[in-house]
Amino acid sequence: MPSLTLPASGLYDEMFDAAAPRAHYAQYADWLNSQSDEALATRRNEADLLFRRYGITFSVCRDAYARDRQIPFDIIPRVLPASDWAVLERGLRQRMQALNAFLHDIYHTQDIVSAGVIPAEQVLGNPLYQVAMHGLALPNQVYAHVAGIDIIRHADGQFYVLEDNLCVPSGVSYMLESRKMMRRLFPELFTRMDIAPVEHYPNLLLQTLREASPVEQPTVVVLTPGRHNAAYFEHAFLARQMGVELVEGQDLLVKNDRVWMRTTAGLQGVDVIYRRIEEDFLDPLAGNPESLLGVPGLLSVYRKGQVALCNAPGTGVADDKSVYPFVPDMIRFYLSETPILNNVPTWQLRKPDDLAYALTRLPELVIKEVHGSGGYGMLIGPLASRSEIADFRQRILAKPAHYIAQPTLALSTCPTLVEAGIAPRHVDLRPFVLSGRDTRIVAGGLSRVALEAGSLVVNSSQGGGTKDTWIVENA
Amino acid sequence: MLSRTAANLYWMSRYLERAENLARVLDVSQSLALLKRSTHSDDMSAPLRLTDSEAEFAARHGEEINARTLWAFLGFSGHPASIHSCLLQARDNADAVRGALTGEMWENIHATWLGMQEAAQQPPADLARFGDWVRERSHLFRGITYGTIHRDDAYRFIRLGTFVERADNTARLLKLRYRHHRAGMADHYALVALLESVSAHDAYQSIYHDTVSAPKVAELLILNPDVPRSLAACFGEISQIVAQIAGPRGRNAKKLAAEMAAALMYGDIQDILAQGMQNYLHHFLGQTAELDALLHTAYMEAL
Fold first, then answer.
1. d(CA A246, CA A98)
2. Is B111 on the interface with A (CB under 8 A)?
């Protein structure tokens, strides 16, 4: 039996209820009890070796040596019962339908603003609102074709949506590679347990991307900033899995109101671009003029409906942290439904009352920049030093509208293999939602884990690791 | 296929082939150094002359050339012509087109680079064995490519890179080591070194059953289509591969490749010797460079 540190009380642990494994972990716990520390260490080393051999990387800095650093992978799965997943899936579907309806609305008639559900300045005054998207008709009225919704489980055992990533969410390749690795390392568990497959994700993605174009048999490409981008591995992985070209800006050009790629046989037309570069860099004529990553003239062709971009430009306004508090209202407004997934209670510091409240409670709250991402530009009150809090107070007072505040959530923990054996570490969950003619979700997602004891930052750009996520039937 | 992809695949295999060839040349220099002392420095400097890096070597290691400093410089250093740099380039080109490679190909070339990194950080004691390793990795990659990738233009550009680099290397080595004016033992060893640098010593013996003579070596390495590293063998492949590349572009490249292949297939060693080996090889290398430029313009560069 491996050495095990049980979770602290007051937190929700995914595997243990006090000292006893939860029902959906029972089979896994039986198996784990039959293992030794050495056996687990061996498998972990094998996983590290294989990941290194495959060159599966996510790195912040890509010089010739450091760029081969791999994302830490934990061999203990995060297991969810199919009953929990069914609720999550319905909630995700609902949320993405509302968010896409919102995006369609704000770029057309703006009913939600005239109904007074969301203040005009939050939408129209948002720097991420793209005037150029106004009045464009998109197939199926879908703007965010690929979304990665960050979900956490709080101490109350409930799921909360932390963030809707609607621009260029990444991580799905780790979901797929983690699964491949787990199948290879623990085949016995896959025969013993009924684990929902995730491997068909690339097929669903291709189908979704194709539906973004009105063309019969559209040519799809994946647009990457290039091999120096931290997520390059994922771009190449998805292109290969879908059997489409992986292109860089320099491979594309605009001519006669169409987008073309330069091939060995001459120019070939492109109908759908799954763009994995930030919106601002897509077209140097429309966005950042310094950008060498984009394609000059791309957006004018896009506006003429001659090429599809996934996700559409201008989706950022819907996953902005200042708009986030309104998502439950969107669900009620567009779908006339009760929100299934919880939002985290949020104080909008642009409001004087919320600001006054938050300033008195900085040591207990999490403060986030409204346009920040990747875990940067945030303050976690309970973990911050006094001087950090004082510093943040000044930043908030200078520009209150740039910040929101949320209670510090006690992310659930999940047993994780660390130096001292198996110990609880905080995890979140990022399922991926595809929106085309239908909404498609594979059962599972990327579970990210904060490897340092007590840490709440799970972002891979800041040293978080990943876990395979198992949705199990009959639990 | 994307033009950039074609270029990356082509250069990936050129660099890998270059690393393999350099490992062979370094091995030969090392064994020559053990064999005889007399013409030592000339033979030892061959790898430096081949890679046009004598001055930089001297600046770093002085005038004295021995196997260890040669390996340090052309094997493990960051000099652009080193095996280390070639394998980095090969891997970087592969990384840029990961989507066009099979998983097994990528894993292999990536693992080669990881092995090279380790060796560069702590150069191995047994240099000959490291040379064997480099060659084996290259052979392995070619074998995996042959066994796993489907036969489309990606496969063709990979193969094209191999044979263009190989032809270029054989011609350069011939230019460097070929000697015909004297018949002393020094020349004998130089010719044997030349044959071994292109793994053709066994072929020579089984074809000619004779002592090593300069005209026969020239004939073997230039005109014999059955010797895998001869110019004729390389251009036999190149002209076939180029002809199969899809699309309307590249007529000039296809024409030149066919002409060069025909000239080798129907060539006569006496004509070449009459022209003078250095002249002939100079012209050949010029044509090969022109073919490379035509291939780039037709397929691999931005339109």
1. 31
2. yes
Task: Give B90-143 as a DSSP string.
Answer: HHHHHHHTGGGS-HHHHHHHHHHHHHHHHHHHS--S-HHHHHHHHHHHHHHHHH
Is pLDDT of B63 > 90? Answer: no
Shortest Cα distance from B296 to chain A (angstroms)? 10
Are B157 and B14 in a shared domain? Answer: no
- Domain containing B284: what range? 151-303
Same domain, B121 and B1: yes
Domains identified in chain B, total number: 2
Q: How many CA atoms lie within 13 A of B156 on its CB side?
A: 18
Using a pLDDT cut of 70, give the percent of chain A over it: 95
pTM, two decimals, is 0.88
How many residues in chain A?
475
Q: What is the dihedral of CA A423, A425, A431, A432, to 10 degrees?
A: -110
Task: Find the CB nearest B2 among A53, A233, A262.
Answer: A262
Put simply, whether A264 touches B (Cβ < 8 Å) is yes
Query: Which of B127, B149, B171 is the last residue in one of the domains?
Result: B149
Cα–Cα distance, B134 to A325 (Å, whole number): 59
Number of neighbours of residue B277 by Cβ within 10 angstroms: 18
CB within 8 Å: A265 and B248: yes
Kindly provide the ipTM of the predicted complex, given to two decimals: 0.83
- A-B interface: how many C-beta pairs under 8 angstroms? 74
CA distance A264 to B302: 10
Q: In terms of domains, do B121 and B204 share one?
A: no
Asked whether the beta carbons of residue B5 and residue A240 sit closer than 8 angstroms, the reply is no
- Give yes or no for a contact between A275 and A282, defined as CB atoms under 8 angstroms apart: yes
| DSSP-H helix ranges across A37-81 | 37-54
Contacts 24+ apart (CB under 8 A), A287-293: A291/A249, A292/A249, A292/A250, A293/A225, A293/A226, A293/A248, A293/A249
Q: Which residues of A touch B3 (CB under 8 A)?
A: 251, 262-264
- Cβ–Cβ under 8 Å, residues A25 and A168: no
B176 and B211 share a domain? Answer: yes
| Domain endpoint, select from B134, B149, B164 | B149
For B59, list phi and psi in degrees, rounded to 5.
-65, -35
Domains parsed from chain A with CATH numbers? 16-213+307-338+410-472 (no CATH), 214-306 (3.40.50.11290), 345-407 (3.30.1490.270)
Q: Do B114 and A65 touch (CB under 8 A)?
A: no
Is it true that the peptide bond before A311 is cis, omega within 30 degrees of 0? yes
User: Which A residues, 369 through 428, put their C-beta within 8 Å of a C-beta on chain B?
Assistant: none
Quote the radius of gyration of chain A (alpha carbons, Å). Answer: 23
CA count, 13 A, side-chain hemisphere, A63: 2
| Distance in angstroms (rounded) separating the CA atoms of residues B39 and B188 | 12
B143 and B208 co-located in one domain:
no
Residue A447's pLDDT band, with cuts at 50, 70 and 90, is very high
The string of pLDDT tens digits covering residues B106-140 is 999 999 999 999 999 998 999 999 999 999 999 99
B104 and B197 both lie in a single domain = no
